[in-house]
């Protein structure tokens, strides 16, 4: 019996060690997009640098509304197949978003004309909380989150966005809440029922910038990292 227990304990330890090493290797695959100190690697959409509305405060990348130079912040680099992880914290009544597949061109005045959005929202107090597919974690105006797992305003949430060959998966606070395939019948139906149905450039670019949305609210981001697939 003792030998059996000892063998079981040893096997458990080996399984745990393998799992821990796997998680360590997985984390090493991520590249930081925010160094916690500067806006290096980011710029305001259609501008050469990050303007005044975005600043680094206590290790967070914070948007302050009603500040000169307000606009969405985008990565200098473009990404196609990736897994993005980011913590966000929204003020009371706030609205923002994480937008990806953004094509930066003077033909478009906003990131959302081409990019796809994972909604960032104070679900309780924000004005844009009347539709399920506008709630935090939704594929904005297209598909609602399967569960409401968002934390209240002024608390940190962790979002993960995975895009691989057009297959989208969203997680919020370690819960998978949305999955769909771009270009599928489901996608086309959702698109036809959305505000984007006549926007020929919406979601049209496989490779694009990632944007943090300025939407009139104070919002903070941290631990922004990406793994290219």
Q: Please write the CATH class name of the largest domain.
A: Mainly Beta
Shape: globular
Q: What's the tally of helices?
A: 2
Kindly estimate the percentage of residues that lie in beta strands according to DSSP. Answer: 25-35%
- At the fourth level of CATH, the homologous superfamily of the largest domain is Exo-inulinase, domain 1
Order of helix and strand elements from N to C terminus: HEEEEEEEEEEEHEE
CATH architecture name of the largest domain: Sandwich
* Count of strand segments: 13
Distance between the termini: 47 Å
The count of domains is: 2
Helix content: 10-25%
Name the average pLDDT.
92
- Largest sheet data: 8 strands, antiparallel
Instruction: Kindly name the structural category.
Output: alpha+beta
**Low-pLDDT sequence parts:** none
Cα radius of gyration in angstroms: 19 Å
CATH fold description of the largest domain: Jelly Rolls
